Amino acid sequence: MNLIAAAVSKPGDVGRKVGFDMSEGWGMIFAAAFTGLFVLLAAVIAYRTGRRQVADQGRVEHQHWVRQNRFDAYQKFIAASDAVDDALEERRRHPGIGNAPLTRTLEGLMGAKARVQLVGPDAMVRSAMTVVTAAAALQQRMGRPVTQILPLNGQEWRELTEALVAAEGQFINDARATLDAPAE
């Protein structure tokens, strides 16, 4: 018997155990319970950390996918715009070739604009539409029957091409800014 138990024991309690005695068995039970709780807590933390890491990785991969698709769409739009520039210059130098090559390149530009619309964002769609509008204005002016008789004068050609070049330059600047920004 320990001293505290002896002090509170009654005279007839000699030999009988009084109070709670912590034995090795109870110590093992508490240690096992504590270890089990610790393992359960560690498992929950590891699970949540793993889920967060997978979600973060998925978000990063999605942003990369969006940025790559935008890059491809913008690159195709710029290439289509360059083809329109070449067709316009060819049409201006050789008025007799007709509008068919220019119309084909404008259709290609419209298809490239549709892809820009698909990948966005809206600011890029507006920028692409500005390029298409400027190119269509040139094509419309060159397609008039009077152009066959009276070619575009230098001032009118310069104004229309400057509008197209400015729109193309703005599209490139907008594309650069969009690609540098984090994708949604």
From TrEMBL:
Residue spans crossing the bilayer: 26-47
This protein's UniProt keywords: Membrane, Transmembrane, Transmembrane helix
Domain of life: Bacteria
Protein name from the UniProt record: Secreted protein
